[in-house]
Amino acid sequence: MSRKMLIDGEGNQTTEEQSHYDFDLFVIGAGSGGVRAARFSASYGAKVGICELPFHPISSEVIGGVGGTCVIRGCVPKKILVYGATFGGDLEDARNFGWDLNEKIEFNWKKLVHKKTEEISRLNGIYKRMLANAGVKLFEGEGKIVGSNHIEVTQLDGTKLSYSAKHILIATGSRAQRPPIPGQELGITSDEALSLEEFPKRAIVLGAGYIAVEFASIWRGMGATVDLFFRKELPLRGFDDEMRNVVARNLEARGINLHPKTNFSKLIKTDDGIKFITEHGEEFVADVVLFATGRAPNSKRLNLSAVGVETDEIGAIRVDEYSRTSVPSIWAIGDVTNRINLTPVALMEGTCFAKTVFGGQPSKPDYSHVPCAVFSIPPLSVVGLSEEHAIEQVNGELLIFTSTFNPMKNTISG
Amino acid sequence: MATSISFTTPKLTSSFSSSPILLQTLLFSRKLSASSLHFPASSPQTLGSGTHSLGRLRGLRCFTVRAESENGVEPYAPRHYDFDLFTIGAGSGGVRASRFAANFGATVAVCELPFSTISSDSSGGVGGTCVLRGCVPKKLLVYSSKYSHDFEESMGFGWKYDSEPKHDWSTLIANKNAELHRLTGIYKNILKNSGVTLLEGRGKIIDPHTVDVDGKRYSAKHILISVGGRPFIPEIPGREYAIDSDAALDLPSKPEKIAIIGGGYIALEFAGIFNGLKSEVHVFIRQKKVLRGFDEEVRDFVAEQMSLGGIEFHTEESPQAIHKLPDGLLSLRTTKGTVDGFSHVMFATGRQPNTKNLGLDSVGVKMSKNGAIEVDEFSQTSVPSIWAVGDVTDRVNLTPVALMEGGALAKTLFLNEPTKPDYGAIPSAVFSQPPIGQVGLTEEQAIQQYSDVDIFTANFRPLKATLSGLPDRIFMKLIVCAKTNKVLGLHMCGEDSPEIMQGFAVAIKAGLTKADFDSTVGIHPTAAEELVTMRTPTRKIRNGSSPEVCWESRAPSKSVS
Asked: Which residue has the higher pLDDT, A336 or A409?
C-alpha cells in the first residue's frame, strides 16, 4: 500500500518522486517530541514509523518506553511525588484552622510509589494508543541511523529491521548523569529516586538545578532529613537572583539543610549508610545520595558521526532554526538538541517540524517568553527575563516591582 | 446650607487633623484666604498643583475656594469647608477613595460605625464587609473546610490517619476573629498614615456639603457615600429563626443540618463551607439551576460536582415558612412540602444597599427601586457635590471594582483627571468547592452579541484525582469570536480556578486572540496549560443559531499531550 509522497516544505529541494521509501518519516524515540511529531506528521498524510526502547521506570542505554522521560521518569511522576509531599505541610496548617489530627500522621512511601507506577503504566498505554490511532507504526527496539535515509531497529530478540525513510527524526531525549567521583555507583539518579523501594529517612541531594531542589522538597515534605549540597552560593543558577534567594530561604524554612559552595569528593559505603565526603573533608551519612548534577543528550549509540550528523561537545545534536541537522534528511527535536529542555517546548518543536516538512508551512519554534515552573515546595514560576538579563539587554530604564507577603492562609495558620 | 463658621489659626500639629472635635465656627480670614487659590467654578477643584507643599501642610486645614451659585450662596464668595472630602463608610471603596484623595493632597475625613461581626444600623467597622463579614472571613472558612477533602485526597497519596480528623468550630471562629481584629487595625493605620481623619459614628447627610456624625457636624466640598450593602431576608413567617451570612460567619457552634436558601455565590460558598466541615447541607433554589447569570455549562458542572461532594440541591423550591419544633430544631415549609430537622436555616437570597437613614431623600440624592444610589459614569449622584462608590451603587459588587471606583473618583476630584471606571472584562470567582473563575462573556452573551462564535471546552480528570480516586474534575471553556479570533470569554471550574483566571484576565482585557493563546507555550504539568492547548472547537455557532458540533476535544486525563 503506497501512501502519497509528500513534498518537502522547503522549496529549494527537488521532489524525489522517483525514489520509493518505506516511510515518509521515521522517528527514533517516542517521548514528548517524537510522539508529537509522529502524530502530527501522520495527520498531514505522511506514512510514519517510530521506534522506542522497551518500557521500564529506570532508563538505560537500552531501556526507555513510549511516553519518554516526561511521562515515565520526569514531569508526571515528579508531580505525583510533589503532590504527596505537599500534603505533609498542609496537614500541619490544618490544626490552626480548627482540625484535630493525631500528633503523628503516617506516610506510606511504598503505596505512593506503587500508585505512581500504575499511573505511568496507564499513560504509557495511552501514548501507544494515540500513536496507533494516528496510524503511526510503532517498533519496539533500539534505533540506529545507517545512512542519510536509512535506519535500523534492533528488536528485543536481537533481529534487526531495516527501513528507508525520506526523513529521519531523532527524538531520543537525554539521561541523568553521575559525576565521575569515587563511589559514584553508591549514589542514585532521579530515575531510581522515583522508584525507591524504601523511603530514605536521611537523604543527601547533590546539585543546584530544579531536579535537585524538587527532590529535596519532596523528601523533606514526607518527613525525611534532607541535606542539599551545591557548588554556588544559591541554587537554580540562571534564574533571577532575587528569586533564587527566595527559594533558598523557603527550602530552609521547611527544614532542608542547605550546604552552598560545597564541592563533592567521594562516596563510601558504611554499615550505617552511605557516607558522603565533601571537598573540605566534612562527612555526612545518608540512606540515599541523589546525583542531580545534570543530564546529557542520548546521542552516543545512534551512529551519528558515521552518517555526518554533527553534535556539540556534550553530545547535543546541532540543528538549525527548523530543527534540521547537518544532514538535510535528518532532523532532531527535544532534549537531544539541548535547546530548552521542557516538554511543551519539545511539543512545539515537534509541531513545527511536522508543519515544515509535511504541512507545507515552514515553521520555526518561537523560544521567546517560554514560561516554566520549578515544583519545589513552595513552587517557583517564571516567564520572560530575569532582572539580571533585563539590565543587560534592555536599553533604558527598568522599573522593578516586587511584592513579598504572607498569604492569607498562613496568617491564621502561622 | 452654608453656615458661617469661625476658624482659629491652625497649628501644624498632627493632633489637629485627627481631632474630631473641630466644631468651631469658621470665620473668613483674609490672611489665610485664598487669594492665591481662585479657581473657576465649573471643574472639580484640584489641589494637585503644588501637592508637595500641600503634603507638608497635611496637618493644616486647607481652604478650598468655590465660586458656585448652586445653593443660593453668592457666586464669588469663597467658601470654606472643614474637609475637601467627607466619606461615609470605611469599607473597600471608601478607604480607597479617601486615602488616594489624601495622597493627592486633599483633606479627608471618613466616618464608620463601630466594629461588630454582625452588621446593623449601628454597627459595622473599618474595613467594611469585605474584611469583616465577606471576602476575608469567607475565604478563611473555605480554607478550613477544604481540609476534609484534602485529607481524603491525601490518602490516595500514601497518607494514613489513625482516626478521622475532627474539626473544632470554635477554634476556627476564634482564629478568624483574631485575624479580623488585626486587619481592621491595619485599615485604621492605613487611613492614619495617609492623613485621613477617622471618625467613629453614624454619618447622615444634612445638606449637599454637610454631614452629621452622631450629632457633630462637618462641612465638606465633596461627600462620598460608600456605605455598602447588607444581607436581605424576605418577610416570611418564622423569619426570626433564620440567619444571614453575617451570623453564619460567627455562629457559636457548627450547624449539624443546615438549609441554605439561595442559588447565588454566597449560598454556594456557604454550602461548600458547611459541607466540608461535615454538616448535612441542603440548598433550596427558586430556579432550575444555581448561579443565574453564569455560563450555562458552568452552572451544570459546579452543581454536579457539589452534589458528588454530598450537598443536596432542592431546585424550583422556595421557602414559605419556618417553624421551631419542640426539640429546638427547625422545620422548613416550602412550595413543595416540608423538610424537618434543621439546626439552622440560612438565607442567602440577596443583599441590599444600606441607604436607609442617610438623609438621602431630603438632600435629593436619587435612588433606584432597591435603594441603590444612582450615579453617572464618574460616580456622581444627582446632587453634584455628592458621590457614591461600591455596593451602595449596586453596579458590580466586588471589592476590586469598589477599589477601582474609589481610585477613579479620587483622580477625578483631586488630580484633575476625570476618570471613569472601566467595567469591561472584570474577572471574578466563586469560592464554592470546586471553585469557579471567569472573565468576559458567557456563551449565551457571546452568541447574542457576536452571532458567530467558536466554543472550545475541556472536561477532564486532573492528575491528582487519578491517584486519589475522588470524582473531582475540571471544566474549562474558551469562547472565541469567529470573525476576529478574539477571545471573548474564559470560564473554569475546578481546583485553583480563581488563581489561574487572574492571569488569563490580563489576556482577555488586552483583547488577545485565540492565536495568541495557542502561541503561548504551556507550563507542564499543570491544569492551566490546557487553556493554551485547546486545538479543536467543541462546537461552532453561526448566525447565533444551533451549533455545529465538532468532536469533543477532551483529553482522557491531564498528563496526555
From this structure: A336
Q: What is the 3-state secondary structure (H, E, C) of B484-536?
A: CCEEEEEEEECCCHHHHHHHHHHHHHCCCEHHHHHCCCCCCCCCHHHHHCCCC
Q: Where are the alpha helices (DSSP H) in B348-398?
A: 360-363
pTM of the shown model:
0.88
Which of these, A355, A365, A11, A346, lies nearest to A170 by C-alpha position? A346
Q: Look at residues B111, B282, B295, B65 and name the one whose alpha carbon lies nearest to residue B204.
A: B111
Q: Shortest CA distance to A53 belongs to which of A184, A231, A175, A221? A: A175
Sign of CA dihedral A340, A342, A345, A350: positive
SS3 B409: helix
Distance CA B285, CA B303 (A): 12
Q: Which of B140, B159, B529 sits opposite A344 (nearest CB)?
A: B529
Angle at B225 between CA B220 and CA B231, to 5 degrees: 155
B149 is catalytic: no
Q: How far apart are CA B437 and CA B490, in angstroms?
A: 8
DSSP state of B41: S
- What are phi and psi for residue A367, nearest 5 degrees? -90, 10
Which pairing describes strands A23-28 and A160-170: parallel, antiparallel, or unpaired?
Answer: parallel
Q: Whole-angstrom Cα distance, residue B84 to residue B24?
A: 17
Question: Exposed/middle/buried for B388, CB within 10 Å: 0-12, 13-18, 19+?
Answer: buried
Decide if A342 contacts A370 (C-beta within 8 A). yes
Interface test with A, best of B145, B159, B182, B431 (most A CBs within 10 A): B159
Beta strands in A171-244 (DSSP E): 174-176, 202-206, 225-229
Phi, psi angle pair for A165, to nearest 5° = -145, 140
**Which of B166, B466, B529 minimises the CB distance to A119?**
B466
Q: Please report which residue ranges of B339-427 form alpha helices under DSSP H.
A: 360-363, 399-414
As given in the structure block, the three cell numbers for residue B303 are 452543581
Which strand (E) or helix (H) includes residue B211?
strand B210-213
User: Chunked in runs of 10, what are the mean pLDDT values of chain B (561 residues)?
Assistant: 38 37 35 38 38 39 42 56 98 98 98 96 96 97 96 95 93 94 95 97 97 97 98 96 97 97 98 98 97 98 98 97 96 96 98 96 96 98 98 98 98 97 98 98 96 97 96 98 98 98 98 98 98 97 76 47 52
DSSP-derived 3-state class of residue A68: helix
Q: Is the sign of the CA dihedral A333, A338, A342, A345 positive or negative?
A: negative
Q: How far apart are CA A274 and CA A205, in angstroms?
A: 12
Tell me, yes or no, if B161 comes closer than 8 A to chain A by beta carbon. yes
Largest CA distance in chain B: 82
User: What is the per-residue burial (b if ≥16 Cβ within 10 Å, else e) of B524-548?
Assistant: bbbbbbbbbbbeebbbebeeeeebe
Nearest partner of A382 among A349, A340, A322, judged by Cα:
A340
Which residue is associated with the grid cell 472565541?
A: B480
CA B73 – CA B3 distance, rounded (Å)? 10
Q: Which three cell numbers stand for residue B382?
A: 444627582
Q: Compute the residue count for chain A.
A: 414
Q: What is the ipTM of this complex?
A: 0.93
Nearest CA in chain B to A411: B179
Place of cell 458590580: B396
